[in-house]
Amino acid sequence: MVPVDELLTPSFLIRHTGYNSLQAFLSAGGISMACLVSLGPQSAAPWDDFIRLVSVHPSWPAMLREAGVEWMLRRLGLQVGD
How far from 80 is each of 7, 13, 34, 58, 73, CA to CA, in Å? Predict the structure, then answer.
């Protein structure tokens, strides 16, 4: 498992949401890190709504998938983003 803060780097967040830190992103969405990592399908609907509002991603899982791809590319030493 990859920690959320390794997936949602400041660079990723700025490019995909306009927020410059994970804390600012979570605060704007009204969610704590503890709640974020334990989201289940039933409780994710409000968070998915927030994701759609602040990004081009249709859902939280879609945003995580893209962040995961970028994380993997960084691990392989490939350029990501700007």
Answer: 12, 13, 28, 21, 7
Q: pLDDT tens digit string along 22-61?
A: 999 999 999 998 888 887 766 778 899 999 999 999 999 9
Compute how many other C-beta atoms are within 10 angstroms of the C-beta atom of residue 40.
Answer: 6
CA distances from 82 to 14, 15, 54, 63, 79 (A): 10, 8, 19, 18, 8
Q: How far is CA 2 from CA 31, 42, 51, in A?
A: 19, 23, 20
Return left, alpha or beta for 32; rule: phi > 0 is left, psi -120 to 50 is alpha, else beta: beta
**Separation CA 68–CA 29 (nearest Å):** 20
Q: Distance (Å, rounded) from C-alpha 59 to C-alpha 65?
A: 10
